[in-house]
Design goal:
218 residues
């Protein structure tokens, strides 16, 4: 069971660390807000949406969990996507495309600017990468870790691990911004992203080899 929690946490953390709409909204809202707990509300909104999506995915694809061709294909595709994401993350870091800006204002912040909880949901569901990630990588993880309604404890650990990965990044960033943080050491951030990219590549290779060496059976 600890494997489900750990893998879910690390994979989620690698995704949360990469710049995206939710991170941008977290920085903007924390900078503008008078509430030091802004990041917590954003993560809660994000978590509610993801919990709903996990349930819908399990309801919608449960019959496919009995199809060997589907299980094999999604394992290979999901592994390949993780490898690709990892390579692109490292490539962008070396090209110096990843920088955190802590001085966002109304002019360069587009989209929803209201309630933090709703913002966490809005910037998740309107992010095409988020949808694609869950459709491929998220489903792959659930299959690999045997997350299902028949394994409620595993399902809970998968969800908690995933949301903790978001929590340990977005909430500290929110506090840091709220209390006057203006920049994050670029070298530290760079090496964190490289490590995350390396993990995605390694785990992607593991998924593919696992499917090849131990093909699924129903």
């Amino acid at each position: 069971m600890i494997e489900i929690f750990t893998v879910s946490f690390v994979v989620a953390l690698t995704g949360a660390l990469s710049p995206g709409p939710v991170l941008t909204f977290t920085i903007y809202k924390s900078f503008k807000s008078k509430n030091p707990f802004t990041g917590i509300f954003i993560v809660m909104g994000h978590a509610l949406l993801e919990f709903s999506l996990i349930i819908l995915l399990l309801l919608g694809i449960s019959f496919l969990f009995q199809n060997v061709v589907f299980l094999t294909s999604i394992g290979i595709i999901g592994g390949a996507c993780l490898i690709t994401f990892g390579i692109l993350t490292i490539k962008d870091v070396w090209n110096k495309q990843y920088e955190l800006k802590f001085n966002l204002d109304d002019e360069n912040m587009k989209g929803f600017k209201g309630n933090s909880f709703l913002g966490g949901m809005f910037y998740s569901i309107t992010n095409p990468y988020w949808t694609f990630w869950w459709a491929i990588t998220g489903v792959t993880l659930m299959i690999t870790l045997k997350v299902s309604f028949q394994n409620p404890i595993g399902l809970l650990l998968f969800f908690l691990g995933h949301e903790l990965g978001d929590f340990v990044w977005y909430v500290p960033i929110s506090f840091f911004t709220y209390f006057g943080g203006k920049s994050l050491n670029p070298k530290v951030y760079k090496y964190i992203l490289i490590v995350c990219g390396g993990f995605m590549i390694t785990f992607g290779i593991y998924l593919i080899l696992n499917i090849i060496i131990f093909p699924p059976s129903v």
